[in-house]
Automatic annotation (TrEMBL):
It comes from Cellulophaga lytica (strain ATCC 23178 / DSM 7489 / JCM 8516 / NBRC 14961 / NCIMB 1423 / VKM B-1433 / Cy l20). The keyword Nucleus does not apply. Keywords: Signal. Residues 1-22 form the signal peptide. InterPro entries: DUF2608, HAD-like_sf, HAD_sf. The keyword Transmembrane does not apply. This is Outer membrane protein. Pfam families: DUF2608.
């Protein structure tokens, strides 16, 4: 083979490689689960239900908080992740935020569907035999409150969850970089990289799929998953960035995610709740000590 022919051959192979990767990992921004349903239907017809895996986030993807306090947007605001609304020193909760505050608000708070058709879509996928599980950044400590809100909104993740390679039930509860648990179709990862977490559970169960559909409202999570699987041409991977909640809120707020009025209300709500709890349960008034021992 001449140098010229070799160079031409290598160029063609490179183009094929790039083309394969482009076809294998696809991503798009969506505002409705109808788009997810269309792809799940397409992939199950193409590969068979046994070869398709659907992975969905919870907060601001399946469900969203009924009030701001304790919701996903409130959490990102408290952590300084929203550029146009950084909390003031007075607004920021420093004391026992992870130890007490988040768990308390999950227990007290209620949620609603982001899309009224989600239970119907999920039930159809599950009844059809498609493997479905939720992948959340929440800690395993909050499993009970999380499952309560899912079930209350018609979402039962235990119907067709990922199982071990022999078909037996998968139940995991241990510490990697942080705490992680998986049971009944709900994987809780304490904020660890979701790309790594998907790879971890596939490896742990011994499962492999020809097509995977991932849905999340976090740009970081979407990027992490894309980065993890960008070179894996064996999987037809679709990544959906679900932006409905943020988009709708910005439209309502004139282009910003949190208004000054909303920030003040979240602060006032927390102060009122905190005072009420301390008045009724004086043992919670521990000053700089947390109620939770860890």
């Amino acid at each position: 083979m001449t140098k010229k022919k070799y160079a031409t051959f290598m160029a063609i192979m490179l183009l094929i490689s790039v083309s394969l990767k482009a076809q294998t990992l696809k991503d798009s921004t969506i505002f409705s689960f109808k788009d997810v349903n269309n792809v799940v239907t397409q992939k199950t017809k193409q590969y068979g239900v046994e070869n398709v895996l659907v992975i969905v986030d919870i907060d601001n993807t399946l469900l969203t908080s009924n009030v701001d306090l304790g919701g996903d947007i409130w959490y990102n605001w408290q952590r300084g992740k929203i550029k146009d609304a950084i909390p003031t020193k007075k607004q920021k909760i420093e004391n026992c935020f992870y130890e007490d505050v988040i768990g308390l608000l999950y227990e007290l708070g209620t949620m609603k569907l982001t899309d009224s058709l989600i239970p119907k879509y999920l039930n159809n996928w599950q009844n059809n035999g498609t493997t479905v599980f939720a992948l959340t950044s929440r800690s395993p400590r909050y499993r009970t409150a999380t499952q309560r809100e899912l079930l209350k909104n018609g979402i039962n993740l235990s119907k067709s969850p990922i199982t071990q390679i022999d078909g037996s039930k998968a139940v995991y509860n241990y510490t990697l970089e942080r705490e992680m648990s998986y049971r009944d179709g709900l994987m809780m990862t304490t904020g660890m990289n979701k790309g790594d977490m998907i790879a971890h559970i596939l490896g742990r169960t011994g499962r492999s799929y020809k097509a995977i559909i991932f849905v999340d409202d976090s740009d970081k999570n979407v990027k992490d998953v894309k980065h993890k699987f960008k070179d894996n041409t064996a999987i037809d991977f679709t990544v959906f960035y679900f932006d409905k909640i943020v988009r709708d809120r910005k439209i309502a707020n004139g282009g910003i995610l949190i208004t000054k009025k909303q920030a003040k209300k979240m602060t006032a709500d927390w102060e009122k709740l905190s005072k009420t709890l301390k008045d009724i349960f004086p043992g919670r008034n521990t000053k700089n000590k947390c109620v939770s021992p860890n």
